[in-house]
Amino acid sequence: MMAQMAIELRNVSKQRRNKTIGPLNLTLPQGYITALVGHNGSGKSTLMNMLMQLVNPDDGEIYWFEQKYKQGLPLKVRQAIAYVPENSLAEEAYWNVEEAASFRKHWYPEWDAEYLEGLLEKFEVPRNVKLGKMSKGERRKFEIAAALAARPQLLLLDEPSSGLDPFAWKVMLETLLRYMDETGATILISTHIVEEVRRLADYIVLMHKGELLGMAEKDSLFGSWSEVWVNAADEEELAELAAELPGVLQLTLEAPGAASFLTQQVQGVEEHIHHLGLKVIKSRSLELDEILHLWTHGHRPILVDYEKGD
Amino acid sequence: MYEEAELQGGTPAYRSGRRGEDVWIPVQINENSAEPLYHQIETQLRSLIISGVITEGTLLPSIREFAGELKCSVITVRRVYQDLENEGLLRTRQGTGTFVSNVGDAAMAEYKHEAVRKALEGAVDVGKSVQCGQEELTRIFLEIVENKYREQQ
Fold this sequence. Notes:
The complex is a heterodimer of chains A (about 300) and B (about 150).
Chain A lengths: L4 E11 L4 E10 L3 E5 L6 H8 L7 E6 L10 H4 L2 E4 L12 H11 L5 H11 L12 H14 L4 E5 L7 H18 L2 E5 L3 H7 L2 E6 L2 E7 H4 L4 E7 L2 H10 L4 E7 L1 E7 L2 H10 L4 E6 L2 H9 L14
Parallel strand pairs in A: 3-7, 3-8, 5-6, 6-7
Antiparallel strand pairs in A: 1-2, 1-4, 8-9, 10-12, 10-13, 11-12
Chain B lengths: L36 H14 L12 H8 L3 H13 L3 E4 L3 E4 L4 H25 L4 H19 L1
Antiparallel strand pairs in B: 1-2
Helix pairs in contact in B: 1-3, 2-3
GO molecular function (chain A): ATP binding; ATP hydrolysis activity
Organism (chain A): Paenibacillus albidus
InterPro entries (chain A): AAA+_ATPase (IPR003593), ABC_transporter-like_ATP-bd (IPR003439), ABC_transporter-like_CS (IPR017871), ABC_Transporter_VariousFunc (IPR051782), P-loop_NTPase (IPR027417)
């Protein structure tokens, strides 16, 4: 199944009990890791479930590897997708690792038992323990390893790191990167952990209250917002500064003599400040989590367009 | 796995094991710089190659691997590799990876001069910013050159 797009959503919407998800328009290019971020209840899990056809959209169309399947995903497509849901399946709770693995093996023709063995060892997943008796983290590690053992072309991970200790978390990151390096598969991972996005993602998709706020190449967000400190004696000077610098955010007097604000045009603003005869005390680039926070509050970053050169 | 022929005529910095595992590329990203990420990586990688820190024939990390190390996207690394390939500093073989090409003595010499000029220009700017006169600056420069090269002998 060679396709440019692993997933495409066109005007997809879903009515949930107390909210509407969508309309969602999104494409996930094949061969990349896309991080799905957003607050709890923003619709991330519903989106994942729709990609597994566990939930069907009320409206719009979903394409898997550039094909749509209204009558249900054919086996061949299902076998190319692995999913680690937010909550593990109750059906497997009475099985131990070997039993669950041998069941899943029947579903996936590409199943790699040797690879699974290696991952279980690396993750230190306990054997001969029923999956339902495992700690949350142990179960999670099994689920991630088993999803990868299916050698999927599309891997859906719904908050995979919740419950993992820092050691297992690191193993997970390395394992996912290596898998991508070897296979060129596609990963959609929902997460609340900024460091995970920093280390894994190529693209970031931001959801908020059931809507997609946008998709950005991760590195284009880098340096999009800056915090600048400038000398300002008092409230009066602060007001003058506000008049001179329209478009800056959160202009505040930090301490007598120093004001700070946020801006997306750090170079232009710094030049302007010099012209006013003021001094930039210091500046810093905002972190990814701060950029995403501003974005969810309506301050969409101006993305660096690499195509147009610098 | 690469083929033996790939490494002919160059010094293989990489001999065994998984691809790229033996090569560590010392690129340092400054997160507070206004310089775009790909530009920072490209500039540093170019200097490492031209200055001979990474030698001809070296197999670079795969795009995904390097992106993981630098915590940037594969899109950025792919762009850097492509730019440097267009400049003739790298070459990519399908299924084997991206290697450092022959840089050439002329390019190396030019790079050396460029690097020294840039550093000296920076030093002169510092001198000017503290109102240091032309003669005084020249005197200090010659003094430093004298001292440094005497140390060496």
